[in-house]
Amino acid sequence: MALPVTQKNSITVQTTLPVQPYPLISDRNPIKTQRLIIRPFQASDIDALYELRLQPEVMKYTKKGVPDINRTESQEILDKMMGSPGNDMYNFAICDGKTNVLIGTGGCHLPVGEVGWPEIGYMFRKEAHGKGYATEFVNAFLDAYWVLPRVRTEVVVDAETVELSEGVTAAKECLGAITTADNKPSHSVLRKTGFERVKVFEVLGNHPQEEGDMTLWAWTVKWPSKAT
Ligand SMILES: CC(C)(COP(=O)(O)OP(=O)(O)OC[C@H]1O[C@@H](n2cnc3c(N)ncnc32)[C@H](O)[C@@H]1OP(=O)(O)O)[C@@H](O)C(=O)NCCC(=O)NCCS
């Protein structure tokens, strides 16, 4: 999804962002919800992660677009998540609360996303769809994300993501998300967790099964809409 067709109108704003680096993986405590454990990745997640990343119905909606070719590819992802690159993301294994087995992954995987703001992503194995797990995850994730230590900073963001009056360049911090225009379950998750659609744009599809332009939707949630 890398090649933009719709032109961007960028603007520099004063805002806040989580202090970098994020808390180290080794210092991140599991987040428990009613049915889920949201925790750092561990070596024993490989079988479940590979199974998840083999599901075409799931991978279709990821940036990669297609299942992993072999276990080695999934292992490389897991190694990245558990190693030092994982410290630069706020990304988690999402596990069944009773068995601690990975059923999905999610979190803030991009510090500078498509519309300039950090970006959230998530995916669950198909057997877990339609049970409200993604909504439960995003709500818990936002609670944890908004209370991370903050720093005041300048960010270049898409002008359509901020409301600015003339001469004012301060903006409330946002977290972004990108979906394809047809991903109704994900739209529903984002709406239920406080995100609003802020932009519709076209990119040159680079998924192997896609040809021509692809319509994407950009979403943002503003700090601290979920903080309690
Ligand atoms: C998007 C995704 C994470 C949603 O997970 P989920 O746990 O099913 O989400 P929830 O149950 O919390 O909410 C999804 C909503 O869509 C509905 N839904 C779920 N699967 C659906 C399907 N296959 N067809 C139609 N509706 C569906 C749910 O019933 C629910 O509806 P509601 O809002 O009326 O309650 C999951 O479908 C997935 O992993 N998809 C593949 C990867 C992906 O798309 N990631 C997001 C990229 S932006």
TrEMBL record:
Coiled-coil parts of chain: none
Any one GO molecular-function label of the UniProt entry: acyltransferase activity, transferring groups other than amino-acyl groups
Matches recorded under SUPFAM superfamilies: Acyl-CoA N-acyltransferases (Nat) (SSF55729)
Pfam families: Acetyltransf_3
Residue span, N-acetyltransferase domain: 36-222
Transmembrane segments: none
Official protein name in the record: N-acetyltransferase domain-containing protein
Organism annotation: Pseudogymnoascus verrucosus
